[in-house]
């Protein structure tokens, strides 16, 4: 079996459904990757993540390099063995967290020197070191190292950052290819940058295509620009990337973000929202989000969502889930997280089926009617 292939099975407009084949299993697209930042999808066992329908999860290079450490992870057999997940794992490059979490950082052409948010210790992250860490983790899909500047920076700042990220992309490619056995069984994705600027995005896409990657990510969005601006950028950015490779929108998003992005040609997503919201008492449903802490649920014997097929909706009432969250019980976070991840996977499955059956436009219209009506 080949280490990586992508087959598009059907399209409707710009929306696509397909399959990514990897050594550790197939990934059905459009795909949503639950975020397993620190070798765990928070509040869930890996068997619950898999039962939700997830084909792949995301691990975080920055957090794992700091704790427990990449070299230690390798000695323990790699991330898959460590956390008990035998399906594909995508790891981000660590660049975004370095930029967003560390106040004490210095960016040069070589890479980024930063202080750990855990203990203040100093570290250096470069394209080469990012590739090495992701190799030590045993990642199936490795992300190129890039800089993600703030979206409100002047165009010339965004341009310089993008140009450096493209130089880092070439170094990432070279570092990945030097990875021996790991490179032979994994895949490398490049990351398009350029802010909201169509010309800069095109320049970035062309540079990445010239280097050559297994897949391509649209980076630098969902960083405060708002849905309207994000969609306006997605109206052109995915089209600039190779059509025969997966397109991954990083860090997105709300359910209506996912539907709108699939309409614009995106194949893969990740976001902490369903797990974070589950811990905070928010549930996503086909009729919009619910705040389970709200008193109106205190005597509601109905399920979270009558259309949802997850185990939580089959067994537990809104009243019980309200009680758990008001009482601060850990089970409340666990059950809402299980529901939210299950809902996201049902949404992705619904989109895949709708594209395959040439009814995606109607599916998207009906979804927005119900979801945004609250």
CATH topology of the largest domain: TIM Barrel
The rounded distance between the terminal residues' Cα atoms is: 47 Å
CATH architectural label of the largest domain: Alpha-Beta Barrel
Strand order of the largest sheet: 4-5-6-10-11-12-13-14
- Uncertain residue ranges: none
**Number of helical stretches of at least 4 residues:** 16
**CATH superfamily grouping of the largest domain:** Queuine tRNA-ribosyltransferase-like
How much beta, percentage-wise? 15-25%
- Helix/sheet category: alpha/beta
Please write the CATH class name of the largest domain.
Answer: Alpha Beta
Mean pLDDT: 96
Helix % is: 40-55%
Largest beta-sheet details: 8 strands, parallel, barrel
- Shape field: globular
Give an overview in words.
This protein has 374 residues and is α/β, with parallel strands linked by helices. It folds into two domains: 4-271, Alpha-Beta Barrel (TIM Barrel); 272-374, no CATH class. 43% of the residues lie in helices and 18% in strands. It is built from 16 helices and 16 strands. The protein has helices at residues 46-51, 61-66, 70-75, 79-83, 95-101, 127-137, 155-177, 181-185, 198-211, 227-234, 255-263, 273-279, 311-315, 318-326, 330-356, 360-371, and strands at residues 4-12, 15-22, 25-29, 31-36, 57-59, 89-91, 105-107, 112-115, 122-125, 141-143, 187-192, 215-218, 247-249, 268-271, 282-283, 290-291. The strands form four sheets. It has an eight-stranded parallel β-barrel, surrounded by five helices. Helix 6 (127-137) crosses helix 7 (155-177), helix 11 runs antiparallel to helix 16 (360-371) and helix 15 (330-356) packs antiparallel against helix 16 (360-371). The protein is globular. The mean pLDDT is 96.
């Amino acid at each position: 079996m080949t280490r990586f292939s992508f087959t598009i099975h059907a399209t409707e407009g710009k929306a696509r459904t397909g399959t990514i084949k990897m050594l550790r299993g197939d990934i059905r697209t459009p795909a949503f990757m639950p975020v397993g930042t620190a070798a765990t999808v928070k509040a869930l066992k890996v068997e619950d993540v898999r039962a939700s329908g997830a084909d792949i999860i995301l691990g975080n290079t920055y957090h794992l390099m700091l704790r427990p450490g990449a070299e230690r992870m390798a000695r323990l057999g790699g991330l898959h063995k460590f956390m008990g997940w035998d399906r594909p794992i995508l790891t981000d490059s660590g660049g975004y967290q370095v930029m967003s979490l560390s106040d004490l950082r210095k960016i040069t052409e070589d890479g980024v020197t930063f202080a750990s948010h855990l203990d203040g210790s100093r570290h250096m992250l470069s394209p080469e070191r990012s590739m090495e860490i992701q190799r030590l983790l045993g990642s199936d899909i490795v992300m190129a190292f890039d800089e993600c500047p703030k979206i409100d920076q002047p165009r010339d700042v965004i341009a310089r950052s993008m140009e450096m990220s493209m130089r880092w992309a070439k170094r990432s490619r070279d570092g990945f290819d030097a990875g021996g056995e790991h490179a032979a069984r994994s895949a490398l994705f490049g990351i398009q940058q350029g802010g909201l600027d169509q010309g800069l995005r095109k320049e970035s896409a062309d540079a990445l295509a010239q280097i050559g990657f297994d897949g391509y990510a649209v980076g630098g969005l969902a960083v405060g620009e708002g849905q309207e601006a994000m969609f306006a950028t997605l109206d052109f950015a995915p089209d600039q990337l190779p059509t025969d490779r997966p397109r991954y929108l990083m860090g997105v998003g709300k359910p209506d973000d996912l539907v709108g992005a699939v309409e614009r040609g995106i194949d893969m997503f990740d976001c902490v929202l369903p797990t974070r919201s589950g811990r905070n008492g928010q549930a996503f449903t086909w009729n919009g989000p619910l705040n389970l802490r709200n008193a109106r649920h205190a005597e509601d014997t109905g399920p979270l969502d009558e259309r949802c097929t997850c185990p939580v909706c089959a067994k537990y009432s809104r009243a019980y889930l309200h009680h758990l969250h008001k009482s601060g019980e850990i089970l409340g976070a666990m059950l809402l997280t299980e529901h939210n991840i299950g809902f996201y996977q049902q949404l992705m499955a619904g989109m895949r089926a709708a594209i395959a059956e040439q009814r995606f436009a109607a599916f998207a219209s009906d979804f927005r009617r119900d979801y945004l009506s609250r």
